[in-house]
């Protein structure tokens, strides 16, 4: 799982310095749906749970076929400390309010700061969702 997060972080490395944005992998236009991610989290995420950099928070597969493991995940990148589930849900809503329909990233200190220096929350294509379908 970590190697897929690592590969995904390489894909969006250019986006990490941008602040809030709707960028992501080439595959984002082929099925990424940020509202789908939100529906998996809405009312289900533990607001007090800590999430760490590189950890999948919520995922869904790009296809209904069991053999296809690729999909879209929400995860943190380059954070120095854990981020609470409630904060992650708020950040996801900022991405939606920004106009992101598929993939995107938002600094964890947004809206107070648009500087990604303390890390970002990212929704992007991953080569493998692992065992995570829905809330991880």
From TrEMBL:
GO CC annotations on file: extracellular region
Annotated keywords: Signal
InterPro entries found in the cross-reference section: Killer_tox_Kp4 (IPR015131), Killer_tox_Kp4/SMK (IPR011329)
Domain Killer toxin Kp4: 9-126
Keyword Signal: yes
Signal sequence region: 1-17
Name used for this protein in its record: Killer toxin Kp4 domain-containing protein
Organismal lineage: Eukaryota, Metazoa, Ecdysozoa, Nematoda, Chromadorea
């Amino acid at each position: 799982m970590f190697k897929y997060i690592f590969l995904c972080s390489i894909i969006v490395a250019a986006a990490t310095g941008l602040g809030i944005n709707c960028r992501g992998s080439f595959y984002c236009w082929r099925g990424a749906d940020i509202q789908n991610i939100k529906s998996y989290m809405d009312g289900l995420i533990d607001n007090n749970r800590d999430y760490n950099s590189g950890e999948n928070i919520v995922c869904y597969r790009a296809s209904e076929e069991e053999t296809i493991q690729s999909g879209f995940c929400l995860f943190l990148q380059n954070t120095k400390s854990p981020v609470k589930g409630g904060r992650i849900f708020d950040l996801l809503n900022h991405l939606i309010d920004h106009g992101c329909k598929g993939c995107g990233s938002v600094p964890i200190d947004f809206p107070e700061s648009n500087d990604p220096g303390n890390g970002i929350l990212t929704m992007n294509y991953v080569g493998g969702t692992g065992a995570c379908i829905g809330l991880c």
